[in-house]
Amino acid sequence: MTITARPSVVTRALLEDLSLIAREVSSRIIMPRFGRLAKEDIHTKTSSSDLVTVADVLAEEYLSTQLRRLLPKAQLIGEERCSAHPSLVDQAAEAELAVTIDPIDGTANYAAGLPVFGVMMAVLEHGVPTASVIMDPVTQSVALALRHEGAWAEDETGQTTPLQVAAPFHRIEDITGKIAWRTLPLGDTILADHNLRAMTGLWDLRCAAQEYRLIASGHGHVLAYSRTCLWDHCPGWLLLHEAGGYGARLNGAPYHAAIPGRGLLYSPDKESWHIVHNALALSA
């Protein structure tokens, strides 16, 4: 008996629908409240730096409603819903179809009136990211990726531009990007400190959405994260790989909802990935 694999539900048409939903939530909920939040509209979750606003909650509700209409059989893995029901995260690996939702990535920036935040969604099939949407509500541009079909940016007029990561580097001194060095497991802090100081330029935008977009566009070389929540990183994982980049857990394993592991490290290719990994003496 021959078993025929089901065709993927992820198509360019679906990606266009997801992009439209992201644009709608940006124009209807997120931007009208940007710079206009009252103190009572901003709350903390796990710490003083882990914020949630009324816009986060309303945006996730809007996205969830639209996604249930578009993909009624999909398991929805939203950041704010998972804060109340953490066990939902485990269902992403088991579900035939799931969608991760980060209604406002970079909430601290959004709450402070800093225009560096984004809307992130990824479609997962059996735990594997197959479609990605990262929207910049301020510029109304969206970065899109489809598994095996590439990554591209689309501006508010509909004009598209292919995304391509930067050329591989061969020297520590050439590196630019974001490295969460404070929380990464550095096996040799003296070596890591020396090499971090040698790098050309490191930055932290407090917003994975915009950091992924920058690296996928070739405006930097590396990204290194210690916290790897699905809604923060499934969209970026697919975007960077489809833009020609290379990424893996700190132990070299792929990022997958069912595969445990610490951290995430990205670079233009596998060789330069090992250069950074060795330079920071990263522990698996």
Strand content: 15-25%
Output the CATH class name of the largest domain.
Answer: Alpha Beta
Distance between the termini: 42 Å
> Which structural class best describes the helix and strand composition?
alpha+beta
DSSP strand count: 14
Main sheet summary? 7 strands, mixed
Indicate the CATH architecture of the largest domain: 2-Layer Sandwich
- CATH superfamily grouping of the largest domain: Fructose-1,6-Bisphosphatase, subunit A, domain 1
Helix content: 25-40%
| Low-pLDDT residue spans | 1-5
Q: What is the N-to-C succession of helices and strands?
A: HEEHEHHEHEEEEEEHEHEHEEH
CATH fold call of the largest domain: Fructose-1,6-Bisphosphatase, Chain A, domain 1
The pLDDT mean sits at 94
Number of domains: 2
**Helical segment count:** 9
Biggest sheet strand line-up:
3-4-5-6-7-8-9
Q: Which overall shape is indicated by the principal axes computed on the Cα atoms?
A: globular
Computed over alpha carbons, the radius of gyration is 18 Å
